[in-house]
Specification:
Layout lengths: L1 H17 L20 E3 L10 E13 L13 E3 L3 E2 L4 E2 L3 E7 L8 E7 L5 E6 L7 E8 L6 E7 L7 E6 L2 H4 L9 E5 H6 L10 E10 L7 E9 L14 E8 L1 H5 L7 E4 L1 H7 L6 E10 L2 E10 L5 E8 L8 E6 L2 E2 L24 E6 L7 E4 L4 E13 L16 E9 L4 E6 L34 E3 L18 E6 L2 E8 L1 H7 L13 E7 L10 E3 L12 E6 L4 E6 L2 E13 L15 E11 L19 E3 L11 E7 L5 E7 L5 E9 L3 E7 L12 E9 L2 E9 L2
Parallel strand pairs: 1-27
Antiparallel strand pairs: 2-35, 3-6, 4-5, 6-7, 7-8, 9-10, 10-11, 11-12, 13-14, 14-15, 15-16, 17-18, 18-19, 19-20, 21-22, 22-24, 23-24, 24-25, 25-26, 28-29, 29-30, 30-31, 32-34, 33-34, 34-35, 36-37, 37-40, 38-39, 38-41, 41-42
């Protein structure tokens, strides 16, 4: 008994200790108890969900007593390697996962990794470092050349001595995981603050994320970015969380990895986010994900203010590898919502019961969707992320907008998009869809056919609406912590994933007809084969209906960052989606003060999903306001041996088209195309032969397309 009591006290101490590195909510107190009028209904879709099957059944990675957000808040901790690791041509194609765990009750929270090989076999699960520090919230990316993962994480959270460390696994040296170098400092808060890099001396940056892409140095160099969020509250009268960012970046090549270099880092913050944290002119809080492609570095998400009168989609874009200014774009995402009357026309649905004919001011806006990532899509012309809009209102009590009824379950997933050509924001209904899911008008949950008339009334004459709660835990005041929205892609194939608690919440809120769903959350997956022009009905994975998840409580789902191609044949367009999640042993996160502290198990699985449409890198159904004169796709496969296919697109405005291959010295190797082509899609195979009909050596090559006013250059790697 004494031992059990001691462990309980120790775990309470640990929970208090680590609560500081959980992001904290603002604008609290707007969750209202359900007024006794009106009720919803469970939505019944009219389309079938995509066909799927498990190609890797859930496999246990490791047990954990830390049952909250094991991967990261705003990135993807599941990263797929390229098929080949260079420079030695070693096979890769596996999947790395990074996460934090407490392995046994009372242990230190540590950072772990797991590796799943290309055949779906878990071949490694181990700590990344050898220290016994309290570690967590890692960001990971894969070097596209060496296939080595680079991971950053924080320690000593909240302390001026707090650090962000990095390590990388030298996969390229032996073609197997587990050769992690000694961790090195990337962000030393005390040192960088003393150097005057931070906007305020008391700023402390934690929660790191890692991204790798091309470098301005060109050649074989890549640039790694690590950004971290500010833990220190805003510097003004509000003094609330406002996570401006610190970005560290370093250029490297494979020789740096061979030397186990700690790299040479530069640092900067972003003026717009610094102003929000400085409350200049007012406190604002950004919820965002970062995305990088070639020279473009961007943040995308939404921003709110203290009174709830601002709910804006925003992006910050830099086109110079993270150096120089970030351009800021935003759009108001508070949408006026009509307030329906009851069937007799004597009471508004949203109103004070004592004055039923005085309607509250109703709207839809961002709600409970701060934990998301962002991607580029549609040939990198758009930035996309997923989240939710929900029904909120101003109760006319002088406290402003933002009130809502959690028990009414009126939160609906969306895809949000920023077009880099038109500089415009848009969104689409993901689930539940209205009559026109992409009209930039939120679906009205009591008017799905969008005819301006309530679809149906309950027996008491109140409007009925369709329930939805895309949040793991059923209690509204914890929804800030328990939302997870992720989006991943492979060219025009997209997948959105979230944790859904609609049915479990119906039972929690007193509907006995949902008793079978007590403590039974679901993983929801929607897919698109056309760059998000259309989306599928969700696949729901749960313990009741999915045999592979029998007796599980799946929480915090993370998809793999790349949808792998299984088949791209007519009537057989299928992709592989990796999944990483926590199977909790008891419903509710102990870290959040819910459920029993009896741990859980981290799981890996993979699905074979029918995408219903061709994987086609050139596919885009949206009209581009900027005339497209041509398009050059990435060669496939890449790296390659002995041959690779280069696909490209020409239009009617095309004149002569050239595609020429160059070596690293800029010398012409081979002219593949030099003629006028008909409009449409084309492809050509290069078999590693130069213009003299000689085989070229292994290495990096560039291929350039010129047609009319369009030109593009891409890199490819020949391995022998």
């Amino acid at each position: 008994m004494k031992k059990t009591f001691f462990i309980m006290l120790l775990m309470i101490f640990i929970i208090v200790l680590v609560a500081e590195d959980i992001m904290q909510p603002t604008n609290l107190g707007k969750e209202l108890n359900n007024v006794q009028k009106g009720k919803g209904k469970l939505y019944t879709g009219f389309r079938d969900a995509p066909d799927f099957e498990f190609i890797v059944n859930p496999a246990s990675l490791v047990s954990t007593f830390y049952d909250y957000m094991p991967g990261s808040y705003n990135s993807i901790p599941v990263r797929v390697q390229p098929e080949i690791s260079t420079p030695f041509g070693l096979p890769a194609g596996g999947t790395y996962m990074t996460y934090h765990i407490i392995e046994t009750a009372g242990a230190t929270r540590r950072l772990y990794f797991s590796y799943v090989n290309e055949n779906g076999v878990v071949s490694a699960t181990d700590p990344i470092s050898t220290s016994d520090e309290w570690e967590g919230y890692a960001g990971v990316d894969i070097d596209p050349v060496s296939a080595d993962p680079m991971v950053a994480w924080h320690t000593a959270f909240g302390s001026p001595d707090g650090m962000v460390y990095m390590s990388y696994d030298l996969y390229h040296m032996m073609g197997a995981p587990g050769l992690w170098i000694d961790p090195f400092e990337v962000i030393n808060n005390a040192t960088l603050s003393a150097q005057g890099i931070y906007p305020y001396a008391d700023d402390l940056f934690f929660w790191p994320y890692t991204f790798i892409d091309s470098s301005p140095l060109g050649g074989d160099y890549r640039r790694v970015y690590v950004y971290a969020n500010n833990y220190t509250n805003s510097h003004g009268t509000s003094s609330l969380p406002s996570e401006n960012v610190l970005i560290g970046y370093a250029d490297f090549d494979t020789s740096d990895l061979d030397a186990q270099s700690s790299l040479s880092w530069s640092y900067r913050t972003i003026e717009q986010m610094d102003a929000w944290n400085a409350e200049d002119p007012e406190w604002m809080r950004p919820f965002k994900g970062m995305v990088v492609h070639d020279n473009v570095v961007a943040f995308a998400g939404y921003v709110t203010n203290e009174g709830g009168t601002v709910s804006n989609a925003f992006v910050l874009i830099n086109e110079n590898y993270g150096e120089g200014p970030f351009e800021y774009y935003s759009s108001d995402f508070i949408f006026d919502q009509w307030n329906p009357l009851n069937e007799t026309g004597t009471e508004y649905l949203y109103s004070d019961p004592n004055i039923p004919m005085t309607p509250y001011i109703v709207s839809q806006n961002f709600i409970h969707c701060g934990h998301m990532n962002a991607i580029f899509k549609d040939d990198n012309t758009k930035i996309s992320w997923t989240g939710a809009l929900g029904i909120t209102f101003d109760a006319l009590d002088g406290n402003g907008p933002g009130y809502y009824y959690p028990a009414w379950c009126q939160v609906y997933p969306k895809e949000f998009v920023f077009d880099l050509n038109t500089l415009e924001f848009s969104f689409k209904d993901l689930y539940i869809e209205g009559a026109d899911p992409d009209d930039n008008i939120p679906m009205v949950p009591w008017d799905l056919d969008e005819d301006g008339v309530v679809d149906s009334y309950d027996p008491d004459g109140y409007p009925e609406w369709v329930y939805n709660w895309p949040i793991y835990w059923p209690v509204g005041d914890v929804a800030f912590h328990e939302n997870v929205f992720r989006i991943v892609k492979n060219e025009n194939w997209l997948a959105g994933v979230w944790s859904d608690g609609t049915k479990a919440k119906r039972f929690y809120d007193g509907d006995a007809s949902f008793a079978a769903w007590e403590a039974t959350p679901e993983i929801a997956i929607v897919i698109s084969a056309d760059n998000g022009e259309t989306w599928s009905e969700p696949i729901f994975l749960n313990a009741n209906e999915t045999p592979e998840l029998d007796s599980q409580i799946p929480t915090y789902p993370y998809p793999g960052d790349l949808i792998e191609i299984i088949s791209n044949e007519p009537d057989n367009y299928r992709g592989k989606l990796h999944l990483f999640y926590l199977d909790d042993n008891d419903f509710g996160s102990t870290v959040q003060g819910n459920g029993q502290n009896n741990g859980g198990t981290l799981q890996y699985a993979a699905l074979n999903i029918d995408f219903g449409g061709e994987w086609n890198p050139q596919q885009s159904n949206e009209n581009n306001e900027i005339p497209v004169l041509g398009f050059l796709a990435q060669n496939y496969p890449n790296p390659f041996n002995p041959s690779t296919t280069i696909s490209f697109f020409t239009t009617e405005s095309t004149e002569n088209t050239e595609i020429i291959i160059y070596n690293l010295k800029g010398q012409k190797v081979r002219t593949l195309v030099n003629e006028r082509l008909s409009a449409g899609q084309h492809s050509i195979v290069w078999n590693g032969i130069n213009d003299n009909n000689e085989k070229v050596s292994s290495g990096i090559y560039f291929y350039r397309m010129d047609t009319g006013n369009y030109s593009a250059t891409k890199k490819m790697i020949l391995l022998k």
